[in-house]
Hints:
Blueprint: H1 10-20, H2 26-31, H3 48-52, H4 58-68, H5 71-92, H6 95-111, H7 115-122, H8 131-141, H9 146-159, H10 164-174, H11 180-191, H12 204-210, E1 250-254, E2 271-275, H13 284-305, E3 308-312, H14 317-327, E4 331-335, H15 341-355, E5 359-363, H16 366-371, H17 379-383, H18 386-392
Parallel strand pairs: 1-2, 1-4, 2-3, 4-5
Helix pairs in contact: 4-5, 5-11, 9-11, 10-11, 14-15
The chain binds flavin-adenine dinucleotide.
Amino acid sequence: xxxxxxxxxxxxxxxxxxxxxxxxxxxxxxxxxxxxxxxxxxxxxxxxxxxxxxxxxxxxxxxxxxxxxxxxxxxxxxxxxxxxxxxxxxxxxxxxxxxxxxxxxxxxxxxxxxxxxxxxxxxxxxxxxxxxxxxxxxxxxxxxxxxxxxxxxxxxxxxxxxxxxxxxxxxxxxxxxxxxxxxxxxxxxxxxxxxxxxxxxxxxxxxxxxxxxxxxxxxxxxxxxxxxxxxxxxxxxxxxxxxxxxxxxxxxxxxxxxxxxxxxxxxxxxxxxxxxxxxxxxxxxxxxxxxxxxxxxxxxxxxxxxxxxxxxxxxxxxxxxxxxxxxxxxxxxxxxxxxxxxxxxxxxxxxxxxxxxxxxxxxxxxxxxxxxxxxxxxxxxxxxxxxxxxxxxxxxxxx
Length: 399
Ligand SMILES: Cc1cc2nc3c(=O)[nH]c(=O)nc-3n(C[C@H](O)[C@H](O)[C@H](O)COP(=O)(O)OP(=O)(O)OC[C@H]3O[C@@H](n4cnc5c(N)ncnc54)[C@H](O)[C@@H]3O)c2cc1C
């Protein structure tokens, strides 16, 4: 079925970016909402798996686009890329929202009285045109167009009245770009939990129009009353970074949260370890993507830092201790790990490593340091900072 395929090395990601850049202006602005289906070329970039694992970065993508287009024509695309940055920053200071999602999802999995309906929904057997097709497309390709993700989530929540956490879980298990921030917060946004009271309602007309008449689903909910939640979330400052001593022998640790450390972490390393830890992803397709992208990353790391580089499946305190001892290093440094399973595992490993005299430090990209603190309120306020932020980040804007 799939026309959508994602090769897994940085060179191919850059090539995809290069091919897309000429279309990032007016083509994208006018065509991005239409989903012609998996067999036909859409007007979107399909860069999300690479951005998700930072095989290429938001900054790289935006800079390439703005080298060829002025801001007026590429604004829509740049803003979409910034949505990703916004969601990451928003969740980073509200880790409880991710934790609560995980708890509620696990609870819904144990107690769900909708098991049959959920199985039918995940297998594309509900009998709603479009919805069933997207369920199958997602499972087969690991990707869905943004508009299809919105329609699907809306029908799941408001027409089928299934628990939103299980829909979000279905996406996590199948999307190659599965991401704690973009996925959880987008589902919350559709449900009316993210922007309190504001929901997204999928309608027959909108789907027919933006699928180019492929689907004209019947029986959709006519209204979308926002879901509610009892607990409110508090915001915390972004985690402090531990000082990295670039004179002491160190090992570079690479995780699937950032597969391109050579673009911003400098220093001499005695060794590097690319820990795939694919069990910390949720689905087979994202695990395969990371597994294979990690091999490309290991090769690049080795030739960039000229140090012995090793691939590892594990990412726990014990395996980190073992490898640090083997290479005789007292420091491990890694790219900052945003909210999600990898950050959880490293925060558990940290005190254990410390007991053995090994420090674990993290280095954050200046893009994140710059933009994330602005993700305090809604996206509108955030995007007000966009141009200034891009200039601070050294992105050249065409006039
Ligand atoms: C219910 C739902 C769940 C989602 N789950 C994920 C997820 O797990 N991982 C994920 O990366 N995106 C998620 N998104 C956002 C968006 O759908 C995808 O990023 C986008 O469809 C990827 O396709 P693209 O690369 O062709 O996007 P383009 O339209 O070409 O956009 C370029 C890049 O901008 C970013 N972007 C675009 N739209 C959004 C958006 N609405 N929110 C955040 N970033 C955006 C992505 O990194 C994308 O690669 C979700 C959206 C919804 C509605």
